[in-house]
What does this fold into?
Amino acid sequence: MDIIISDNRFGFRSSKTLNIYITHQLKINGPLLLMKIVNLINRLLIQKFDHCWVPDYNNSSLSGKLSQSSLEKTFIGPLSRFKTSVSKTKKYKYKYLAIISGPEPQRSIFEDEIQICFLKTNKHCAIINGLINTKEISSGKISFYPHLETTAFKELITKSELVICRSGYSSIMDLYIMQKKVLFIPTPGQTEQEYLAKHHQKTHSIYYQKQGRIDLEKASFNFIQPKSELKKNLLQAAFKKVIL
It folds into this structure.
């Protein structure tokens, strides 16, 4: 083994290999009293690697201040299981698609509130609850989907006009690649999601609502505008930089 690429795992490296660390969290967001020491530790751990790759563009448009640091780094563009944008259509099966994720009890609280909101719309809606060992079921005009593999997941997003989901960084990268209109609902108490939701509202007009106050009649959906760098293969350039 000559190279280890670690996805946000500090312990996944070896003194006998070239070690590459992938993260957008060069600056961890959280309570101010703790962040100085936390970010000092984070910086020291990242510096143990030979290279640091950031899944964003050079202007940190997706991650904002989280990836803005004096640490030596290489921007490799967003990483997603999706490679292309979704197909455009004028006929949608669902008005809204909610993607439920995160830890309990907030996951279930989010799903319950979304169901109530969907019932008020009287439109065909879908919920991906992420559960395993379950099948697709329908209740009235709401369809519930379990965990989906990539092709089925993208197909469902294509069939849905608008997406509602958490403002986690993986979701942001996925929706950026797919170019889908979205409303963010950050997980309460998760400071990074709360920051990213505010960042994208300010920079890309991707609006968000707080859990417990979701109102689809007042919601505004938008998509993250693509950058010219989308056509550049930053990841390939990063590999060349480390002479692979």
